[in-house]
Design a protein that fits this description.
This protein has a single domain, classed as Rossmann fold, CATH 3.40.50. It is built from four helices and eight strands, in the order E-H-E-H-E-E-H-E-E-E-E-H. Helix 1 packs across helix 2 (43-50). 25% of the residues lie in helices and 27% in strands. Bound molecules: inosinic acid and magnesium ion. Inosinic acid (IMP) binds at residues 38, 41, 66-67, 74, 97-105, 150-152, 156-157. Magnesium ion binds at residues 38, 41, 97-98.
Length: 182
């Protein structure tokens, strides 16, 4: 059974999300903001974060992909910008994603938004994976820092599964388990 122990519980996620929402509200002081959620992983976090932000904000979503199929490694390329649209020109944008791993996704999204005329771009991620190699971007708001392990649940998947779990779990694919047997 590759689904491992709970790393961060639903309750801890809820508490931290409320704190992040308050920090974001304090930063913008009621100015107009567009929240851009990255699907599918950022879906649950975006919804919970926004339910703690009662200001009149706009919401957009983009569907991008950097992981393809049965793998726990990024493809090193972000696909999907050709379908990315929305009302960003001249606006403050907060990009919301599940996890900052290599940082490739957020740095490409940030560059794209500035290129199409966003006034400012900030980033908010639930998890920041601490990696040996340096990341090209730092997130402005981070829920939790975690070790360089693969996780699923609360929006995050392995090959499309486990997004619906309410807690965040560690995940070890069967092949990785076999590789480490000896
Ligand atoms: P990055 O471009 O390498 O920063 O990758 C970010 C994206 O990869 C995230 O938005 C997730 O969709 C996915 N990802 C990275 N690490 C994990 C993980 O541990 N579990 C599930 N998805 C992950
Ligand atoms: Mg993602």
């Amino acid at each position: 059974m590759p689904l491992g122990e709970i790393l961060i519980s639903q309750k801890e996620i809820g508490r931290r999300t409320k704190m992040l929402a308050n920090e974001i509200r304090k930063h913008y002081q009621g100015s107009p903001v567009v929240f851009l959620g990255l699907l599918n992983g950022g879906l649950f976090f975006l919804a919970d974060l926004l339910r703690n932000i009662p200001d009149p904000v706009e919401v957009e979503c983009w569907r991008l992909k950097s992981y393809l199929g049965e793998t726990v490694h990024s493809s090193g390329k972000v696909n999907g910008f050709e379908h990315a649209s929305g009302h960003f020109k001249g606006n403050h944008v907060v990009v919301v994603d599940d996890i900052l791993d290599s940082g490739l996704t957020l740095s490409e999204v940030r560059a794209h938004l500035l290129n199409i005329g966003a006034q400012s771009v900030k980033t908010c991620v639930l998890l920041d994976k601490k990696r040996a190699s340096s990341q090209p971007v730092k997130a402005d708001w981070v829920g939790f820092e975690i070790a360089n392990q693969f996780v699923v649940g609360y929006g995050m998947d392995y090959n499309g599964y486990h997004r619906n779990l309410p807690d965040i779990h560690l995940f070890v694919p069967e092949t990785a388990k076999t590789e480490h047997k000896f």
